[in-house]
Write a structure and sequence with these properties.
The chain is of the alpha+beta class. The chain has helices at residues 13-21, 71-75, 89-103, 139-150, 190-196, 201-206, 219-228, 238-241, 244-259, 267-276, 281-294, 301-307, 313-325, 349-353; strands at 2-11, 26-28, 35-38, 46-52, 63-70, 124-134, 158-159, 175-179, 183-189, 211-218.
């Protein structure tokens, strides 16, 4: 499933001038660069802005059109909870093409060497959010899943920063928000998000118990998917990327990397299991030290890799696998986890997402 996409396209100065005269676009000269914007289709899932791309020659100046698309709203006006899937592709693409036709009607630079009417294929996909959500969770379960993510193996990620390179804190009280050059991982309590945005009570209630998982693929990741050749995709063809197979593969990949694959148990249960195992004493001692360290507040698997393993990735990987082979996640539940005994162990998030039940 998928939620948001960014589509971009360059236009000429002549086309910019035509857009300036269009009643659908509004002019904003605040900030360093003048820009045009159109929010008329926001409730239907499309927001557009146009800005100058630096300074070109006297004869040629390029401008960038950026269109942000919300597939849920393309499916249903003002939709905030449900997600678009494979079965919705024909409808959402048709709706998007209709909006583009209305927005850019009559915008065509016949003097341009690449003159054309603006349509969906004129745009290039520069970002796509593959998204799933788990439903029916208690507040305690949502908190524990987000805690597990925060304590996970985040060596491949860094804090998200704004355009001035200032670190952006978690966007909502209950969220996990990190990035690298390829993707941004955004996982959050959906109800906390809609409360933060002051949506109406019906939306807030509909979002109860939902944990949303977003893998926001940037241009380098989209390019990587194309180069691998496993999927027949093109950034000039948005529809080719709207694939549940790609979505599932990426979400599984990153969740497994961060929080591993096994269910979550209390520390004492994990230690008992290690002590009863057939591992040699030296190995048991290492595993016990690992999970004990992980039980400390604020400690991540990344910290354990650095502090206990001196960044020896091979040994670290072997010991994580040894704990999981016993059926335990290396991230223990906190002592005061708030779960009733019948809900222990807490299933791994991967199992909750892909067990085929009441999710998404």
């Amino acid at each position: 499933m998928w939620h948001t996409a960014d589509l971009t396209m360059q236009v000429t100065k002549n086309e910019w001038n035509m857009l300036c005269k269009s009643k659908k676009f509004h002019y904003n000269n605040q900030g360093k660069r003048a820009k045009l914007y159109c929010n008329d289709y926001k409730d239907q899932g499309v927001v557009v802005e146009v800005c100058m791309l630096g300074r070109g020659s006297e004869d040629y100046q390029a401008y960038l059109v950026k269109m942000t698309v919300n597939f849920s709203k393309l499916l249903k006006d003002k939709e905030h909870i449900e997600l678009a899937s494979d079965s919705d592709n024909e409808h959402v693409i048709s709706h998007l093409e209709g909006i583009i036709a209305e927005l850019f009607e009559g915008i065509e630079d016949n003097e341009s060497p690449v003159g054309y009417s603006i349509e969906l294929s004129s745009f290039q996909l520069s970002r796509l959010d593959y998204t799933l959500q788990v439903r029916g969770l208690s507040k305690e379960e949502i908190h524990l899943y987000l805690r597990a993510l925060q304590k996970g193996d985040v060596r491949a990620f860094k804090a998200v920063k704004d355009r001035w390179r200032h670190e952006i804190k978690q966007p909502y009280k209950d969220s996990f928000y990190m990035e690298n050059d390829s993707v941004t991982i955004n996982i959050y309590d959906k109800q906390s998000q809609v409360c933060n945005r002051h949506y109406d009570e019906a939306v807030i209630q509909a979002a109860s118990g939902i944990l949303r998982i977003e893998i926001q693929c940037k241009a380098p990741k989209l390019g990587s998917i194309k180069r691998r050749g496993k999927y027949k995709v093109s950034t000039r063809d948005v529809l080719s990327f709207l694939s549940s197979e790609i979505s599932e593969e990426l979400i599984k990949k990153y969740l497994k990397k961060i929080t591993k694959t096994k269910p979550y148990y209390p520390l004492d249960t994990i230690k008992t299991g290690i002590n009863k195992s057939s591992y040699r004493k030296q190995k048991k001692d290492r595993l016990l030290a690992l999970v004990q360290k992980m039980s400390k507040k604020g400690k991540r698997l990344s910290d354990v890799w650095k502090d206990l393993y001196q960044e020896d990735s091979s040994r670290f990987r072997v010991d994580i696998a040894a704990i999981e082979e016993l059926g335990f996640n290396p991230i223990p539940l906190p002592e005061k986890h708030g779960l009733p005994s019948e809900k222990i162990p807490l299933p791994n998030l991967l199992d909750r997402l892909f067990d085929g039940s009441k999710n998404n």
